[in-house]
Amino acid sequence: xxxxxxxxxxxxxxxxxxxxxxxxxxxxxxxxxxxxxxxxxxxxxxxxxxxxxxxxxxxxxxxxxxxxxxxxxxxxxxxxxxxxxxxxxxxxxxxxxxxxxxxxxxxxxxxxxxxxxxxxxxxxxxxxxxxxxxxxxxxxxxxxxxxxxxxxxxxxxxxxxxxxxxxxxxxxxxxxxxxxxxxxxxxxxxxxxxxxxxxxxxxxxxxxxxxxxxxxxxxxxxxxxxxxxxxxxxxxxxxxxxxxxxxxxxxxxxxxxxxxxxxxxxxxxxxxxxxxxxxxxxxxxxxxxxxxxxxxxxxxxxxxxxxxxxxx
Length: 312
Fold this sequence. Notes:
- The protein is an alpha+beta fold.
- Helices cover about 30% and strands about 25% of the residues.
- It contains seven helices and 13 strands.
- It has helices at about 20-30, 75-90, 120-135, 155-160, 220-230, 265-280, 295-310, and strands at about 5-15, 35-45, 50-60, 95, 105-115, 140-145, 170, 200-205, 210-215, 240-245, 250-260, 285, 290.
- Helix 5 packs across helix 6.
């Protein structure tokens, strides 16, 4: 007897201003409705970046890591379609924004929800990565539970030069690689990235909250120092990753990944950013999440699924 479960996929594209490109991406996502529900879209114009949240019901018999032109799992099929549409409509070589990125589709992550296990979504993630690498010919790197050694997202980004900040705080054009081949071999796809597509990082992890705190200053270097102090890597809050980025007209923010939000949450991050910014004489705005909570995402999925069933 098959065990029902829910899985969530967060997918980030390096485009937030081209309406036609985003329309193509969203049409690809909605093509699989109601089996897969697009529950959130977060647009950030300053970053020139959009985050999408897809949710689907899965069963254990439909996830396989082997490459498949027509993946069986609805979520696997939908994510593959969204990535393909984004790669066709977004040119990394023409991209400019205040957020670092490695590809036209920069980051894809699967999270277990409501009955799914991390192992379930790790298998799904590995299958999607194989599809993308084999069919779309994009270098694809695995992390988290999808990677055989549990490599972290930050580690692979660091190897690929993701955190190398440009002088004017704007990332522009294709990847600034010194060699034609990548510094580390991808888990799927070719060793050489396309200038228009870049590379893709894809993983499976427990739930992560994204929480950003505005800092009212144009001094991005100072905000980077604050972010470094907040992050676990810099000796700050456990399970918190943070970057200081330019954001908006003359402003900046501390953008955070909360890897264990049940232990260290937005309140602790907000308090620490306020304290450190106050020491430098900066005002701080109220932070914000870029997505809903796990509970709200499940609620929205169920609502939209019931609505779709009642209309069919």
